[in-house]
Amino acid sequence: MPNRINEKIKGVKEVRLVGDNVEQGIVSFEEALRIAEELELDLVEISPSAVPPVCKIVDYQKFLYQQKKREKEQKAKAAKVVLKEIRFGPQTDEHDYNFKLKHAISFLKEGCKVKAFVFFKGRSILFKEQGEVLLLRFANDLEDYAKVDQLPQLEGKRMIIFLSPKKTK
User: Fold this and answer.
1) Contact yes or no for 165/145 (Cβ under 8 A)
2) 71: which residues sit within 8 A by CB, 6+ positions away?
3) How many independent structural domains does the chain possess?
4) End-to-end CA distance of the chain
5) Do 89 and 38 reside in the same domain of the chain?
6) Residue 65 has what pLDDT?
């Protein structure tokens, strides 16, 4: 919701005034508006839910610019979750399994989530139990590095398990 400015602030008798080179405190709305006009700045409502509402005397365009800049910085700091996929067949042999296990460990150490799945082609869907055992073994081998978000679940021709990295202290 955009901030209300100057005359658009309605139904307010008093405001808590803040801002640079302004005496801070509670003043009447008319007085706050007069001070803003004298300084050739805008009266911007910062916190409408406060009693009395908090208003700041600033250049509105500069205020908007700083607000956008702050939001952009927060967005950049937000953690981006990367999901890596590892695909198995129901009859994956030991060497391939260990190779994929090493990759999963490196992904988890980087802080990525891992989606491991067994893909069943044609009649191999008959080996659902083998696929589930494979994924549970995979999760068990990774227990030092990851926690299981979702146990093996069959979705169409895939049995999927989700793992996320354990927080290191």
Assistant:
1) yes
2) none
3) 2
4) 39
5) no
6) 92
Kindly report, residue by residue over 124-156, the tens digit of the pLDDT.
777 788 888 888 888 888 888 888 888 888 888
CATH of residue 94's domain is: 3.30.110.10
Q: Indicate whether 156 belongs to any domain.
A: yes
Q: Are 9 and 53 in contact (CB under 8 A)?
A: yes
Cα–Cα distance for residue pair 133/129, rounded to 1 Å: 6
Angle in degrees, CA 108, 113, 115, rounded to 5: 110
Can you tell me the distance from the alpha carbon of 108 to that of 113, in angstroms, rounded to the nearest whole number? 6
With DSSP H G I counted as helix, E B as strand and the rest as coil, what are the percentages for the chain, rounded to 5?
A: 40, 30, 30
Please give the Cα distance from 35 to 42 (Å, whole number).
9
Q: How many residues are listed for the chain in this entry?
A: 169
Type of residue found at 13: K
Q: Quote the CA–CA distance of 139 and 117 in Å, as a whole number.
A: 11
Structure tokens at 27: 């003043």
Evaluate if residue 83 carries a pLDDT over 70. Answer: yes
Q: Is residue 106 part of a domain?
A: yes
- From CA 31, how far away is CA 37, in angstroms rounded? 10
